[in-house]
Amino acid sequence: xxxxxxxxxxxxxxxxxxxxxxxxxxxxxxxxxxxxxxxxxxxxxxxxxxxxxxxxxxxxxxxxxxxxxxxxxxxxxxxxxxxxxxxxxxxxxxxxxxxxxxxxxxxxxxxxxxxxxxxxxxxxxxxxxxxxxxxxxxxxxxxxxxxxxxxxxxxxxxxxxxxxxxxxxxxxxxxxxxxxxxxxxxxxxxxxxxxxxxxxxxxxxxxxxxxxxxxxxxxxxxxxxxxxxxxxxxxxxxx
Length: 239
Prior knowledge:
By secondary structure, this protein is α/β, with parallel strands linked by helices. The protein has 9 helices and 10 strands. The protein has helices spanning 42-50, 72-78, 95-106, 111-124, 140-152, 170-185, 197-201, 221-225, 228-235, and strands at residues 4-13, 16-26, 31-35, 57-62, 65-66, 80-82, 158-162, 189-193, 206-211, 214-219. The strands form 2 sheets. A 6-stranded mixed β-sheet has the order 6-7-8-3-9-10, with helices on both faces. A 4-stranded antiparallel β-sheet has the order 2-1-4-5, covered by helices on one side.
């Protein structure tokens, strides 16, 4: 059974239809990469999965259960963790406090358990040396790591990553990819929106390409990247 399935979801803002009749599914343990031009509707798709936006039509199923009307915190407690394209830490709190807050309020953990979770995630994401630093003073790489760490602290079964490699150097992106490989090896299912295509291709089991709010292509990564329409729309290349 698929861990997550979207059935013909649609979202419009006024006259602008952002996500139009999109269906997709992801199996447990898979990594699904999502590609598309800017403004294609990728982040809106995440918002519909996480509950930050409500579907105008269609439904969202998670573990075989209809969660279309659940609120974001309910989806998080059910095991859907999320990072945002622009990191959103509590800037005046330390890195450790950010993770304890995520574990307690996002993951529903007791304080003692949340402390243990925070320490584990700090080690896992390379943030241990920054434990007691204010989150607002971190470098971009470490803010990205903290964004990932906060999602992990909720103990997700499904992890939504929104352009987590964006703005990083080649070396920094490679470090982040290594961390994501370790997370994947632990059985966490991931859906990853990314413009750093080589990073995405190194992990993704399948690709889903969206354009103007509709599915353009879906399938095995290399086959999708060789698709003439994908090359034209996403990379500006004629076949």
